[in-house]
Amino acid sequence: MFMRGLKRKCFDGEEDIEGTLAGIKAIPSYNLQRQSLLDMSLVKLQLCHMLVEPNLCRSVLIANTVRQIQEEMTQDGTWQMINTQSTGQASLDRLVSTDILCRSSRDQAEGKHVPAYSTFNKDFESDQAQDSSETMSTASSVQAPRNLQSNVWEMENPQENKGNFQKSLDQIFETLENKSPNSVEDLFSEVDNSYYDLDTMLTGMMSNTKMGHCDSLETFSSPTNTASNSNCKSDLNDLDHIVEILVES
Amino acid sequence: ADIISTVEFNYTGDLLATGDKGGRVVIFQREQETKSRPLSRGEYNVYSTFQSHEPEFDYLKSLEIEEKINKIRWLPQQNAAHFLLSTNDKTIKLWKISERDKRAEGYNLKDEDGRLREPFRVTELRVPTLKPMDLMVEATPRRVFANAHTYHINSISVNSDYATYLSADDLRINLWHLEVTNRSFNIVDIKPANMEELTEVITAAEFHPNSCSTFVYSSSKGTIRLCDMRSSALCDQHSKFFEEPEDPSSRSFFSEIISSISDVKFSHSGRYMMTRDYLSVKVWDLNMENRPVETYQVHEYLRSKLCSLYENDCIFDKFECCWNGTDSTIMTGSYNNFFRTFERETHRDITLEASRESSKPRAILKPRKVCTTGKRKKDEITVDSLDFNKKILHTAWHPMENIIAVAATNNLYLFQEKVN
């Protein structure tokens, strides 16, 4: 269940603890948690309630959080678009499920350098600052041997991704500003769809949110899928389809 | 019964209005003390129920407009009728609630059942007389203030001149005259030219209780701006700017979200104002802009759970707060149907629960405690066992007496201070 080949420097020495999982709680690294927060925020931003206008205050706050994470990641130089899997069913007290921790080797190459984490503290559910500093020392010592696996490191061009990301963010705001019938499709037409493997990502995430009107979920997996439970919306989509045909002919 | 979305006492406290998610308004009236029913003093019974707003559909944007009542504000009583303003996301309505306990009898031209009398049957003229009838309470819409808000209305506030009021949405604040429905003046506009640059929205606004040219509005970044309408027609420039400097040691990705102010209320005196953010309530002196004079932690134990609360959207819950009549005590809600009151002078605070199990009629409420350390004492509740679906967002305090109204999802609780 644990990451294969991952050597963890525990307090009691350098042992491969692959077999001795049972009592050890895996504390996710700062980068992992930050990434998962970013994923969560992006999903929240793009889930619009199709029949009722989205809450502008909530959207602005989430977008600001995303920008904050993006800025910090840019500063760290760890900015990348990872093809993430879902966080699964998250209970109230767990930030990150074991799915994230069980990610493949690409995550082992994360974080070549260890930025100063002085401000990172209690928010990720460690009750004492001591825990987090211990986490940090554990994480950093783990990453050192991983640097040897540099061929696994998938670092895409940060500038390009930043640009794509900013574009998505802008599109989201334009969507919120003027809800056109094709807004959801436009939103996703230029975004790399592999990023949003919706089925797995959202099952746990949105268990508490209003799902009734959110058939926009289906458009995540394929932008051409215009299924929606709103007659109005599907009529408009049909109309556009017809117009396209007319124009082309 | 639907989820209650707003609770408000009128100026005398005799009437209590609630609005719900279904667009209905229910008004309760306090029973008068009578010799025949001495125990019924202080009981509130239903006085009037009416449908204030209906769901609408915006055809231009293909969007539903919810009928949920966001706010109700009473007007001071000037004659026998009562007036209140109620608003949903887009439209504000002025309602007149009046009593009818007499009806006219003895018309000349029609029968008692309303049928027209044959003219040749009218042999003599008589003056209709007023006869008593069962009390009927009627609610009639007197004004509809529509089409002035592109974004969702979050606040309305009646001015102390009793002739104008303001309505605030996410990006704009408009000033209305109660008599004029086809025009409103825009007094604050924070919409950027490019919506992509939007980083801050208006979260609440209120007129000063005494100064008719002064109002405040709060933002999602935890700031409050006080504006004076005498300085310019468009109050984009504030007169005062209230912001507490951030504590760098507690900075996190959630700092901004939890600093977003969900409610702002002036004290009755007008000297102070109170703001509610996610974890605390702050009292500000209007004369000091750089920090609040008092800060009360509502549920600090949630600080370590912010990520989970972000995940399930609870971090965006908008709690309201209120003053008691003398401004000595403040009250606000929390989760698990808990609500808290803080006495400002004595620094005493208490946590109470609004639930059926703990609120038998006339029973005294037992103080609650949330266990924040590892060891749980008897009767304490652990943070993990709190029910985050049971949130108390709306509370109101009687303007003169110690009677409080607490809305717990779709139930309304009324508590009174025990008088020996």
From TrEMBL, chain A:
Composition bias, Polar residues: 127-146
Pfam families assigned to the protein according to its UniProt record, in alphabetical order: SERTA
Stretch list, region Disordered: 121-146
Any single GO CC term annotated in Swiss-Prot or TrEMBL for this entry: nucleus
InterPro entries on file: E2F-SERTA_domain_protein, SERTA_dom
Superkingdom, taxonomy of origin: Eukaryota
Domain SERTA: residue ranges: 30-77
Name listed for the protein in its UniProt record: CDCA4 protein
TrEMBL record, chain B:
The protein, known as: Serine/threonine-protein phosphatase 2A 55 kDa regulatory subunit B
Domain of life according to the entry: Eukaryota
Record-stated family: Belongs to the phosphatase 2A regulatory subunit B family.
PANTHER family in UniProt: PROTEIN PHOSPHATASE PP2A REGULATORY SUBUNIT B
SMART domains for this protein: WD40 (SM00320)
Keywords noted in UniProt: Repeat, WD repeat
Gene encoding the protein: Ppp2r2d
Residue runs in coiled coils: none
GO molecular function: protein phosphatase regulator activity
InterPro entries: PP2A_PR55, PP2A_PR55_CS, WD40/YVTN_repeat-like_dom_sf, WD40_repeat_dom_sf, WD40_rpt
GO cellular component: protein phosphatase type 2A complex
